[in-house]
């Protein structure tokens, strides 16, 4: 099989509708080498789920090897500010640093912390939807999907309201580096955002050391384990990760989900008729049906074999979340939007030691905005054909214009 003829992540047509290509990849094998990206594509749900838990793989290799030992080139020196910021967050660390930092973050980012935000989240979601309805509609992404999670993460971290407009642009610039083979222009924007965001958080952390509050930054400062606390760079990287992961995925899950609902009016009518009964399973199904994160990478730290294919140390795996979430071996009628789906082992939040720490918060936000839209915008409908962003890894729309 010519993988490059099927897997075309820079093609607008592929980005708009990758599902037929994923089916071809699944039919072709369990591990398929893609020369343009120098990755092994993993399209099956069982393999993706197992490999997310496989400790022969890692989000980094630097805890065991140098770049030279691993056969990889070091990042360009001019990209260093981005990598210092990114590589010290728990998403891109392995043991022993990862479990230590994750446990300390978990002490501050507790279920009680998330639950305490519920009234704020529900009130803000309702306010944003009321404004959308009062305007007769508009861009659901800009008016509801984006401001809600940004405000919630800012509230959680203790970022003053006057500074919150800074967060989304910084996050968008940094997340550009998570696409396959980002351009130098993208890298330059990410580096600038990394420097600015880090400097801002350094000042905010210093202020919280002097005057602690009940925000997450104060909690991170106070968290200790065996006499050890988070270092300043670890705190900065953690805060940036919480913002980026905590709202990029939620924004796109919201917009992708509502696009799916508006394209399936019968399913939306079912949800409107029984929101209390269907919302819990509907949220999970929308996360599965149009996955906001299509690909997650892992480095091969020790040789592995997948489906009879030997993959040596130093290789990179591209775990195709979008394909895994449409795999008929794991889901009955996977192309169908089934809001009552009970057997739904989607991997949109990952799995294993890197399972998304913010999943409960994301579910709370998605439920709050959906409930508000169902209640206050009972005639919500598409006002124009939406345009996908030209991104593959982080999947979303440029805007979602609606009428009420």
Secondary-structure map with pairings?
Elements: H1 3-6, H2 12-16, H3 19-28, E1 32-34, E2 39-42, H4 45-51, E3 57-58, H5 80-87, H6 97-108, H7 111-116, H8 118-134, E4 137-139, H9 140-145, H10 147-157, H11 167-175, H12 184-210, H13 216-222, E5 224-225, E6 228-229, H14 232-263, H15 265-273, H16 275-289, E7 295-300, E8 304-306, E9 309-311, E10 316-320, H17 321-324, H18 359-376, E11 381-382, E12 401-403
Poorly predicted spans: none
Distance, first to last CA: 47 Å
Overall pLDDT metric = 95
What order do the SSEs take from the amino end to the carboxyl end, as H and E? HHHEEHEHHHHEHHHHHEEHHHEEEEHHEE
Quote the CATH topology. Cytochrome p450
For the record, the CATH class is Mainly Alpha
Structural class: alpha+beta
Instruction: Specify the number of helices.
Output: 18
Instruction: State the strand order across the main sheet.
Output: 1-2-10-7-3
Can you say what the CATH homologous superfamily is?
Answer: Cytochrome P450
- How much strand content do the residues show? 5-15%
- Calculate Rg over CA atoms: 21 Å
Tally of structural domains: 1
Number of strands: 12
Biggest sheet statistics: 5 strands, mixed
If classified by CATH, what would the architecture be? Orthogonal Bundle
Helix content estimate: 40-55%
Anisotropy-based shape? globular
């Amino acid at each position: 099989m010519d993988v490059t003829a099927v897997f075309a992540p820079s093609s607008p047509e592929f980005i708009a509708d990758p599902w037929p290509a994923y089916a071809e990849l699944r039919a072709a094998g369990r591990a398929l080498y893609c020369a343009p990206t120098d990755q092994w594509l993993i399209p099956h749900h069982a393999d993706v789920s197992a490999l997310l838990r496989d400790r022969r793989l890692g989000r980094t290799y630097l805890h065991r090897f140098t770049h030279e030992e691993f056969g990889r080139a070091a990042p360009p020196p001019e990209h260093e500010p981005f990598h210092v910021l990114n590589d010290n967050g728990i998403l891109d660390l392995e043991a022993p640093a990862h479990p230590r930092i994750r446990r300390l973050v978990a002490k501050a980012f507790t279920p009680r912390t998330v639950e305490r935000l519920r009234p704020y989240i529900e009130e803000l979601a309702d306010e944003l939807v009321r404004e959308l309805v009062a305007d007769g509609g508009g861009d659901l992404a800009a008016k509801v999907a984006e401001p809600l999670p940004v405000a919630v993460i800012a509230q959680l971290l203790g970022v003053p309201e006057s500074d919150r407009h800074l967060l989304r642009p910084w996050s968008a610039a940094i997340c550009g580096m998570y696409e396959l083979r980002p351009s130098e222009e993208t890298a330059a924007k990410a580096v600038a955002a990394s420097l600015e965001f880090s400097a801002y958080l350094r000042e905010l952390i210093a202020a919280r050391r002097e005057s602690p509050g009940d925000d997450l930054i104060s909690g991170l400062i106070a968290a200790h384990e065996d006499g050890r606390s988070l270092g300043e760079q670890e705190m900065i990287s953690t805060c940036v990760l919480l913002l980026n992961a905590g709202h990029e995925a939620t924004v796109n899950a919201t917009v992708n989900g509502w696009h799916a609902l508006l394209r399936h009016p019968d399913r939306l009518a079912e949800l409107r008729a029984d929101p209390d009964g269907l919302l819990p399973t509907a949220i999970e199904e929308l996360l599965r049906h149009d996955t906001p994160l299509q690909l997650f990478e892992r480095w091969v730290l020790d040789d592995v074999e997948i489906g009879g294919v030997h993959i040596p140390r130093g290789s990179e795996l591209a775990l195709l979340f979008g394909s895994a979430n449409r795999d008929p071996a794991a889901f009955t009628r996977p192309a169908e939007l089934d809001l009552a789906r009970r057997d739904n082992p989607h991997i949109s939040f990952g799995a294993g030691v890197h399972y998304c720490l913010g999943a409960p918060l994301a579910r709370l936000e998605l439920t709050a905005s959906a409930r508000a839209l169902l209640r206050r915008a009972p005639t919500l409908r598409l006002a124009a054909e939406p345009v996908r962003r030209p991104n593959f890894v982080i999947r979303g729309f440029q805007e979602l214009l609606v009428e009420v």
